[in-house]
Amino acid sequence: MLWTLLRHHLRPYLPHVAAVIVLQLATILATLYLPSLNADIIDNGVATGDTDYIWRVGGLMLIVAMVQVITAIASVWFGARVSMGMGRDIRRSIFTRVGRFSTEEMGRYGAPTLITRATNDVQQVQMLVLMTLNFMVMVPIMSIGGIVMAIREDPGLSWLVWVAVPVLVLIVGLLVTRLMPLFQRMQDNIDSINSVMREQIMGIRVVRAFVRERHETARFESANATLTVTSVRIGRLFVIMGPAITVVLHLATAAVLWFGGHRVDAGLVQVGALTAFMQYLLQILMAVMMGTFMMMMFPRAIISARRIQEVLQTRPTLAEPARPLALDAAGGGAAVEFRGVTFAYPGAAAPVLDGISFTAEPGKTTAIIGSTGAGKTTLVSLIPRLHDATSGQVLLDGVPVTDLARATIAETVGLVPQKPYLFSGTIAHNLRFGDPTADDERLWHALDVAQGTEFVQDRTTDGAESAATGLESTVSQGGTDVSGGQRQRLCIARTLVAAPRVYVFDDSFSALDVTTDALVREGLDHHTHGATTIIVAQRISTITGADQILVLEEGKIVGRGTHEQLLESSQTYREIVDSQTTVGEPA
Amino acid sequence: MSEKKTSSTKPAGSSTDLTELTEREILEMQDSMGSEWGESAPRKAKAFWPSALRLAGTFRDHKLGLSIVLAFGLISTALSVWAPLILGDAMDVIFDGFLSGEGIAFDALGRLLLAVLAMYVVAAVFDWLQGRLLNDVVMRIVYVLRERIEAKVNRLPLRYFDTHQRGDLLSRTTNDVDNVQTALQQAFASLVYAVLTIVGITVMMFWLSWQLALIALIALPISAVAIALIGSKSQQLFTAQWRHTGRLNGHVEESFTGHDLVTVFDRQDSMREEFDERNEELWEASFKAQFYSGMIMPIMQWVTYLGYVGIAVVGGLRIASGQMSLGQVTAFIQYSREFNAPLGEVAGMANMLISGVASAERIFELLDAEEQEADGEITAPSGAGGAGTAAAGADSSADGAVATRRRIARAELTGPTRGRIEFDHVAFSYTREKSLISDLSLVAEPGQTIAIVGPTGAGKTTLVNLIMRFYEIDAGQIRLDGVDIRALDRGAVRSRVGMVLQDAVLFGGTIRENIRYGRLDASDEEVVAAATATFVDRFVHTLPEGYDTVVEDEGANVSAGERQLITIARAFLADPALLILDEATSSVDTRTEVLVQEAMAALRTDRTSFVIAHRLSTIRDADVILVMEHGDIVELGSHEQLLEAEGAYHRLYWSQFAAGTDPDEDEAVLEGSLGVTGEIAAVTGETPVVPGEAPTTEA
């Protein structure tokens, strides 16, 4: 998975990657050359007292050091470009792909995990690539180069490399493999302690109402203890690492001096070569250690890559029509027609909607009522083609929505969703979401209709420089800093600004108190004149005036007609009405 | 060996930050607004030293442990600093033997090498011991810190939660604690070690040769300047990177969360453009940040090599002139190598410490926040409880509050709770500027159902919150069975009241666990009985896992209405003497609601109940209906009485049910209602509109 992802996204950066490898090679050659030069100084300069030689080789060493730093920095430059560029590309791919997802795919993944995949998972992969280019590339080059150089200095001592490297790998590897599951566990522990804390803060009223402070404290304490135990274990393993490595490295150094000493004594090797050999051995060991550490990044990056690939390989189910048809925009509203529509979620046994047929006429109001889970929201979501019907057709002005371009559908249908959602930014920014060209006057007019003028006028938030008021005041993401009722009114106004030919209100008045509800609908009647209106509601009073009411029960239309007709004909409707009024009251 | 030290501390440190974020954390951040995405960027403390000292003060209880850590660290460092010198001697033995042609003295060499090894092993053992001890101490400190924070959260008044961003609060209790832990665990340990090493090595270098030491130290200012320049630059760049990460993630979050809207309005292209713009910015910023920070290592290394070359050349000359031995120069080279590593470490750790102190400061702010008065130590403005007009009540709370407070003697409720609630000239405001409830009096007799209706912001939820003592009143008294609730322990009041809140808050866990939250010792049968009575059982059976279904945060497995039913079952199970239902069934469809109503009616018998609802159907059967506007009770009476009175309730009622009638008439009614509201509020004041038989406001 990781490989597939990288192969695809690294392709544009192959020259950069090649540059990194070449530059790292140059850096390492320079690095490896330095101990050899130092050995020269000792053997040919110091031992013979040739100061000129010392100066000359010293100068050479300086130049080599210069080369080394320049190539190293250049390599970092390319490495950063490749990894960050690749991260950017992957993010873009994910964003584009998710943008084409239908509600179904969105629902299958859920927004939170998609967000994580587009951000954190990409970050993981990106960091892996960066680290690999900056450090991992170096490991084999350094190891091989170091070994070659070491053997060149003294082949007789090279066995030390073969002993020291495995010992080091063993120690570091053992620690790392023991640490990795602990890291995973610590992450889980942190998650659980955070979630206890989060629940305590978010549910503080419930905790206090039920006097469960002690219970919560106990839960927190147990999570805290678990986390601490894991952290302590990690910490204890970690503090072994440094001292253990120190001992291994110095053991190797001492071994070089001891065995090297014998070889010097036997005249097999010069003293300078011995010091060089020592340096090489240390460099090899450092490189190997680095490589072993880097291995720690791989499992996480592989998981991240798999999660990214999963998104990138998901094919959106709603395809744009190859040759979209046009709608005649003239003439006010557009008729909405359902022809034998059945809808089932993939894998679900029972359909959510079953054989739905009706027509919502322009200039008329069609209301849909029914119990929770009757399929109301699913039904209206078919109109702007958030889903496709499993069988049957949804038509706008006689044209199946599947034959219409997304843009056409958007111009025609305005849906106010059940969950009122606002984007962070100014109120004006939010209202213009439906139509970026709308002027302030239209925004205010829409707010008038949606009964939002008053609170928008009164609203003041901290602006960039001075306080922002009215349309320029801001709302936080999701609209969490305005009340539920205000959010609903803003969402209604947003759709009004877009001025579609079909209005679909999915339980959009639920958070309004009855008085405001009535006022909003009053305004809508005038404003949406000529347009097709479809209202999903819970409250009977919201829909009594509708031209046509559909009673939905378990995915089927079990009654249709006006309020009065339904009171006569529909048992279910009567039950709903009865549940909201007392028998004998004027209704 | 300090090089190893550096690399051994990095992997844990470098991978924390934002890369470690889990989905849950993202959700938390989501709650705390998009702008807080940049939170993981290093913060700056407002007052560094006071906070740093206070953080250091948390070690107070571990003086002995810390002394041992320092002592062991000192021993370990001293040995590690000394060892290269012996190694140099060993080198000399070889070199001398080589030069003199007499052969190498292997017994001397062996002794020296064994000594070096022994030193390193002992140093390593002490290093390990001090690291382990410090680790345990730090973990203990962080454990206690977490505990204190949690305890604090329980002592904070609800007002605190209202006036602070919950996301920010969460971030303080989670991310900031983690940050402090990292800082203490890694930065502290490394910093001590690094400083000791630097001092030790400096001493050794000067002792060996001050000339060479000067050469080595020339490298010091160079690397210091390099670190300072590039370090601060890359610090800025990283901050920028986090800022841009925040901006991009915020946008991604919005686009994905609002995906349906983007599709409905066909704004995919403009979202994409915005994304590309921010993505490009992030790329730019992160590339620069990575490049600059990536330069530090090669440059540091270069400086090391410069010193190395200098020492090799000058050292070579000095050996040639017989002023130094080869072993001394070799030792020197090793020192100079080990000198720069801790320097880099200090620079890196300093950043971690600064960020840790900033986090500690945020935690201390939380810990210092004003707490609610402890049970049994409640004070109230003296003179409260008497009459006092609205204005006077508000004033006394604003100004002379401290001066005129008196202690309320602790009391206990004895015998079975009857459930009589009295509001006696209660005044309350959330903020000092704006009074919400100015003078409210009311009696709820045991067993009565009191319904509260009124427009948003009328103070309905506030009223029931005051019964729960979620907030302390500014003036007047609230009495439960004749006892001032402030004289009682909060727990004593709350455990007698079952409350179903407006927001259906469920905790992570199964449905069964969530219902059992109402009474922790309830048996499974009792849980199911409560669930059956509140129609939870009905839908639970359709779930594959039944009562063991885990309620998910965003999960679609339990709908909003079903969540509300679960919260009702929870209160049902608690079997309280009083019941408060705050919009308890607003998300439940009306037919189910009727059924729940019946169950609730059974639950309400013999219990004093307060019911808030928008749907008039919910409250029709109440014994008393309170109509609230602007924090005052403007009307009070039974459904029939209030309809006859043709006041505010009448208008509310008609606005809900009149939609089917003549629109013109409808409009007239609505306009009327808007026109008169203010007047009624002004006129009614304390006078009950309907002279109800049972409960009346006290005159």
Description:
The complex is a heterodimer of chains A (587) and B (699). With 587 residues, chain A is of the alpha/beta class. Chain A has 2 domains: 2-312, ABC transporter transmembrane region fold (Up-down Bundle); 336-586, 3-Layer(aba) Sandwich (Rossmann fold), CATH 3.40.50. In chain A, 63% of the residues lie in helices and 11% in strands. Chain A has a 6-stranded mixed beta sheet. The longest helix of chain A has 53 residues, at 213-265. Chain A starts with a helix and ends in a 7-residue tail after the last helix. Chain B is α/β, with parallel strands linked by helices and 699 residues long. Chain B contains 24 helices and 14 strands. In chain B, the strands form 4 sheets. A 6-stranded mixed beta sheet of chain B has the order 8-11-12-5-13-14, with helices on both faces. A 4-stranded antiparallel beta sheet of chain B has the order 4-3-6-7. A two-stranded antiparallel sheet of chain B has the order 1-2. In chain B, β11, α20 (590-604) and β12 form a beta-alpha-beta unit. The model of chain B is unreliable at 1-42, 384-402 and 658-699 (pLDDT under 50). Chains A and B meet through α2, α3, α4, α5 and α7 of A and α1, α2, α4, α5 and α7 of B.
